Amino acid sequence: MSVTHPLLKILKVNILELYTEERDILDYNLNLAPFCRRLEDIFTLGLKTGNNWFVKPGYWSWISKLPRLKNPTFDQTVYFVKDCQKTLTVEGKGRLLIRAALVKKNLDVVVKLLKDDRLLCETWYDESSIIGNEILSEILVSLLVQLKTITFDLNLKNASYLDTTWDIPVYKQYEFVPCESLGIHFQEIDGHMIVLSVDKGSVAAEDGKVKPGDVLDEMFGESLKGVKKGKVQEVFQTYKGIPVYAAFIKACECNGNVFRPLKHILRELGIDPLNNNERRCEEIDEINIDDKAPHAILEDEETETTPVHGPDGSASYKVTYIGQCTLGVDGRVERIEDGVIQVLESKDRINEPVTIAMSETGIVVTSEKDKKEILNHSYTEVSACGRRTDYIQHFSYIAGETSCNLSKDFVCHVFHAPTRDMTKVILCAIAQGFQRTHWFL
């Protein structure tokens, strides 16, 4: 009686479909995703949970533990996946490993190395598995060896959505001329930089390269997935004066449909890539205009709405600057509490009438007496803002000497507003600055 398995039969059909195309297999080949899903089903079948019942097992977990130096080419593939900053989960790492191994033609090595280490194999797979079965695993290896005759020309940089899907988006890499700004407004959502609008006549708008709904994925070779606030501007400024190299995940697939993982996000943002509805900057300024920073909300205000910015996108208010205190390397929002008290109890209080203005890019504080600028912080330097519940007319923001993720010297600046309502409005204005212009190039 022959020994076989339904998944191996389907995999054989998948391979035949790829083989009969008689051309290189690209990311957008319709047979690629079903084939990769079948491979993942085989690698996942019979996978043990190990000692941790609360974590979903992943085949990358054991692949990353395979013996080194037995196959240098495969070792390089594993190191590449480990170092990739665009995949953060075991699912994403496993999928990238499969794609990279297809390109390098060494996917069969994965199963061979595990078969040679029976203890490792028995640790990770039970009797229901294909990989853990001596005969079925031999059949699998023979099928994987056949893949060496197929050329997979896959873009391994296109990996930022592998954590959630096997669907591969359209990936475009551009070289822009040296410029002061690209003219892109974008917002970080779920670790991805979503383009909200593109300024008309800007560098990014040339030839329709970048459109609302696209995702800024990489700049100057650095991944932007899940980066901290200010990292995008930091990278842009570091390479200022030379051509700008950036990569974008396009909102629309080759078939014209919206990339599935972006559908609900773009719907919530009011962006329809299919209609190419480039939203005006004034409309973008109104996104989340009523959202407050969590630490700026008092219990009795949770149902209120607070418009703060003027039609030009700016907001300014006359307040009193009380003073400042140093916080060292700790710029967390929790430091607002003791920072306010420390300034109020200090003998070095300033108590100077000022105008605090929230512009498109940052906070500027100007003396009412001589109109000189006292403070100027970009939103990339501001780590927190808020107030105490017992001093509701006082508010403060914490800023570092450079971008938040690099700063080692945070300072808490404390102000007093004429009314409780003004304090609330100012904090909301600062919070909206975070949402709108932390992400502008």
Automatic annotation (TrEMBL):
Residues 167-237 form the PDZ domain. Residues 316-435 form the PID domain. PROSITE patterns: PDZ, PID, RUN. Residues 26-159 form the RUN domain. It holds the Pfam family RUN. This is PID domain-containing protein. It comes from Patella caerulea (Rayed Mediterranean limpet).
